[in-house]
Amino acid sequence: MTHSVTDFQPSNIEQRTLALAAVCQSAYLSQSIALGKKAPALAYQTSLSSILVMNPEKFTDIYPDVAGLKPGLEYLTLMYKGARSAQQKTDFMVMRYIMGLMQITNKVSQNSELMNNLRNQLEQIQRQRVLSSSNDWDSSASRFAQLYQDIFGQLKYRILIHGSSSVLSQTEVANNIRSLLLAGVRATLLWRQLGGKQWQLLLTRGKIVDHCEKFLNQIRQKSNVRSIHSSNDSH
Q1: What angle do CA 216, 44, 207 make, to 5 degrees?
Q2: Is 149 helix (H, G, I), strand (E, B) or coil?
Q3: Which residues does 71 contact at the CB level (< 8 Å), separation at least 6?
Q4: Rounded to whole angstroms, how far apart are CA atoms 146 and 151?
Q5: Alpha-carbon distance 165 to 179, whole Å?
Q6: Distance of CA 226 to CAs 221, 231, 233, Å?
Q7: pLDDT digit of tens for each residue in the chain (235 aa)?
Q8: Angle CA(216)–CA(221)–CA(223) in degrees, nearest 5?
Q9: How far apart are CA 61 and CA 50, in angstroms?
């Protein structure tokens, strides 16, 4: 999963903000699913599809629709604004997952054998999707989950997801969570490639929030335009 990203449309800090939002989205959706909630379809698809974009020519090859990162952008904004006091326990766990994703990504990126194995297996999954002409990401989740176990199960440090035991015991739920964690690793690699550093999470949070709000406003405006067009078409 070594990535060469050139010819971006957004500015570097905007790309970095979106990549960080993608990391947060993977962690947040993992926690939501562990508690028995359903992930928004577009966000889930956006996260999983990014895993297989290994040779992008531009940033939007990885995340073509900013709306697909809406939960991550919202969560990142509210987290920095401290507007989620009623969800303190959930936020604490999500922050642990985010830090965990950064830790395991760092460990694997330093191991060329694991990185090569990861890339080779992702290329296999990509070929299988092409041959089957499948657009169903649920069918790929089991393969992503197995890949996550194969690669990251070799590390001493592991991310432990907390939630309802009856929910976590379901195979589909476990596959979805591991797939999202793999997407989180992909986003973390991208964030670092774009110059992301952990110290920025505190010292540049004002700029991060500003860019998140800018993207969320764009998403709302596009949604409003679609609603107006839809309303006009119905008359």
Answers
A1: 30
A2: helix
A3: 25, 28, 29, 40, 43
A4: 9
A5: 19
A6: 9, 8, 10
A7: 544 444 446 789 999 999 999 999 999 999 999 999 999 999 999 999 999 999 999 999 999 999 999 999 999 998 888 765 556 778 889 999 999 999 999 999 999 999 999 999 999 999 888 777 667 777 889 999 999 999 999 899 999 999 999 999 999 999 999 999 999 999 999 999 999 999 999 899 999 999 999 999 999 998 877 666 555 566 5
A8: 95
A9: 8
Q: Cβ(178)–Cβ(150) under 8 Å?
A: no
- Distance separating alpha carbons of residues 28 and 14, to the nearest angstrom: 20
Label residue 1 exposed, middle or buried (CB < 10 Å: 0-12, 13-18, 19+): buried
Structure tokens of 28? Answer: 């947040």
The amino acid sitting at 40 is P
